[in-house]
Fold this sequence. Notes:
about 240 residues; mainly alpha
Amino acid sequence: VFYIFTPLWGTLGRAAMPILYASSTTDAAVLKLPTLLDGLGGQILAGITAAGAFAAFMSTFSGLLVSMAGAFAHDVYGKILRPGASEPQRLRAFKLAAIGVGATSMGLGLLVETFDIATMVGWAFAIGAASYFPLLLLGAWWRGLTAKGAAAGMLLGGLLSLSAIVVSMLLDKKVLLLDLPPLARALMEQPAIWGVPLSIATMILVSRLTTRSIPPDVDAKMLRLHAPEELGVSKNYI
């Protein structure tokens, strides 16, 4: 039901505010449509819509901020840089990482402010599809996946997709002047088309070459992952 509103809102915007399409400001339809209601009611509805949008992206950003800061503090700092770090030191690293990640995100956001938000969301999903989706798919259904294979596939698919998107952005801003055929531009703007199969193939290939690192208890882990809870195979951890 929720996703019905997206095409419905676009249809209403095209019918009621065609000027937004003529001026390439279609992303403003979300906030402009409520103002068609005259008087205080339209302003209140527009304010509610803006508040909902703010709450949505702030909740998403805060979750990602905590996730990235936790990865830096727990995995990078606590396991690689300083394995013997105490809890207060890891907490301090988490706070510093949160500040650094937040500042970097705001800086990158200012650089892409002029791009259409719908396009940016699609690019974010494309990078996620080329990196996380193959890991979730193979990690849940293939016993032969190794840590090295998963890492290689995620890095290759994610970084190449990100590179294609960045080059596409630079081409749109005329920073790079390359005369590319339409097919090449389309593949750069939609990197998930080739990024997902490339990531999956890389994971399979590297895992085949590193079969010795397959965990010995992989069958038990797969059983715990897929068995119904009624069988009592899974264990709850606090």
